[in-house]
Amino acid sequence: MRPASRSLIVASALAAAPAAEAADHFGGFGWYYGELHVHTGESTDGGSADLPGTCSGSCGEHAKVYSDARDNGLDFAAITDHVNGGHSASQDGFAADVALAVGAHDPDAGFISLVAGEVWFIGPDGDFGHKNLYFFGDDATIAPVTLDELRPNPDGTAAVSDCASIASWVSGLEAVYGPVLLIPHHTAALLPMPTDWSCHDPAHELAAEVYSEHGSSMGEGNGYDTLWGGEVESGTVLSALDPAGYALEMGFLGGSDKHNSRAGDVCSEDTQLASHPYGGGITIAALPEGESLSRESLYEAIVAHHTLASSGPRLPVNIRYSTGGVELGSVGDRIGVPADQTLLVEVAVPLELAGFVVGGSARSVDRVTPLTPLGVGAWGVELTPGERGEWVYVTVEVDGAAWYGAAGCNDGGDDSREFVWASPSWIDDVPDDLDGDGVSFVEGDCADGDPDTHPGAVDLPGDGLDQDCDGADAMLGAGDSGGETGALPDDSAADTAAPADSGAEPPTASAPEATLPHGCGCAAGEGVPGGFGVLTLVLALRRRAGTDRARAPA
User: Which helix (H) or strand (E) holds 229?
Assistant: First the structure.
């Protein structure tokens, strides 16, 4: 439960505020937001206000799908009209979708559009699932793609002979049109169709859409936006990730699946298909700072699992995994951890958005561990070898009422909770001594990524570093101006921990009070330094104190 005082402060401050705007650059990444699943009136079950006879409610316009996406604060989008089955677009309709995507593509202005289509797959013995096919080649390469080529069965039905034929069909398209991805969605939905994870193409199905206007397919059992068509447990994302089952290494994406041409409009229900009760979500992609958004870089981000699924908020959630003082990776990275060491999970959001976060957790294979607040905009948790399992991912809960303010968000849910789910990182066992200096972290190496730092190393006096891991810099000689321990630079504040036998608790880090994003005038990237400054300090102090106590003589 969120603290009442903070909830009241945030609610009061945002009583008449519009939706929050997230920073585009934070913690060493550029953060980009997109809609990868929207239907128009070119699908026979979709609607567009500018296509005669297709709209039965309040629809957007086919011609404005991409401009509306940009108006909704998004950086990339894709129309995914049906290409087979009972609601397929026509040849001319799909050609119009392709032309619209090619015309809207404007990487120089920071907007990416993809040619895409939704494909249904029904095998001889049951359903394989609904999946979106995306093309990431350049305009000249992908512009000639036709509706017939996106149909695995030439007759336009959803019938396929087996899984191997699906993989072969996708590979054939890739050989002609360049990089493609096949992304399953509403994977756990009994209606319209669940995903059969045993029919999985590891070369092209590198992510799953885990949330949309159908609801959540995560399978987390927290009662949040349960699937309107019923849940099939074997189709949940947790089932797909289960090392005892399918053990699929996939990233997380979000989409709206709107059928009324309203790309990225997460605060309205679908007026064309009223049975879809939720507003839907978006995808967040994290690109290394300085790398521009393009079809190629977006493709690489999805392949590398550097993505997050959001139920709506455009919120950067920066994650860092480390052990023994060694940084292992960020969201979605495969990481290596010694079998007997604790995994440190650090989570940060921009300071100006910290007040909207009301909780979070790290989920491993068989447990959920709450994140501990450590300063404004920073949270963390340490997972012991018995707790971390084969993978871990982070979920952050957002106060939706505060985020959307007085305008509200008519997203169809029963509560105001919003969520961001970060793609999981899979964990490999690696040798205990990470830097090869002969001493592991659990044996007292306080910086197991630096071979010059370990117990017994020569501690250079006055350099602000603790090369011998005794808890302090070496003393300077008489007459040196640095004093007994010298001046410690900011990045070595961990070396100020109390001696092991003092019994003192490590100091509590302080951080400036969070400011709200509306009119704050904050420069891009402001917030927790590097995304982790406060958090790293506190957890480093805790680790050092624990190590010193373990090393102290009885």
Answer: none
pLDDT band at 9 (very low <50, low <70, confident <90, very high): very low
| Owner of token pair 């909207």 | 356
Provide the 8-state DSSP code for 368. E
Mean pLDDT value across residues 162-179: 97
Helix (H) / strand (E) containing 25: strand 25-26
Closest CA to 398 of 459, 308, 503, 265: 308
Find the distance separating the first CA and the last CA of the chain, reported in whole Å. 42
Q: How far is Cα 291 from Cα 513, in angstroms, rounded to an integer?
A: 31
The structural architecture, per CATH, of the domain 27-314 is Alpha-Beta Barrel (3.20)
CA 160 to CA 167: how far, in whole Å? 11
Please count the helices (runs of H) and the strands (runs of E) in the chain.
10, 22
SS3 87: helix
- Give the span between the Cα atoms of 74 and 100, in whole angstroms: 17
Rounded Cα gap, residues 493 and 109, in angstroms: 42
Omega of the bond leading into 338 within 30 degrees of 0 (cis): no
Among 99-108, 189-198, 415-424, 535-544, the range scoring the smallest mean pLDDT is 535-544
Where are the chain's structural domains? Answer: 27-314
Q: What is the pTM of this model?
A: 0.82
Cβ neighbours for 432, distance < 8 A, ≥ 6 positions apart: 338, 339, 340, 341, 440, 441, 442
The model's confidence at residue 550, banded by pLDDT at 50, 70 and 90, is very low
For residues 157-180, average pLDDT: 97
DSSP states of 299-324 as a string? HHHHHTT-EEEESS-----EEEEEET
Strand 207-212 with 215-216, pairing: antiparallel
Q: How far apart are CA 413 and CA 401, in angstroms?
A: 12
Q: Which of 172, 176, 244, 230 is nearest to 201 (CA)?
A: 172
CA 109 to mean position of chain CA atoms? 24
Tokens 């979106």, residue located: 132
CB 390, CB 367: distance < 8 Å = no
CA 519 vs CA 14, 18, 33, 159, 527: distances in Å: 12, 11, 21, 54, 15
C-alpha span between 79 and 134 (Å, rounded): 10
The 10s digit of each residue's pLDDT in 227-278 is 999 999 999 999 999 999 999 999 999 999 999 999 999 999 999 998 999 9
What are the DSSP E strand ranges found in 140-259? 180-184, 207-212, 215-216, 251-254
Helix then strand then coil, in percent of the chain rounded to 5, is: 25, 25, 50
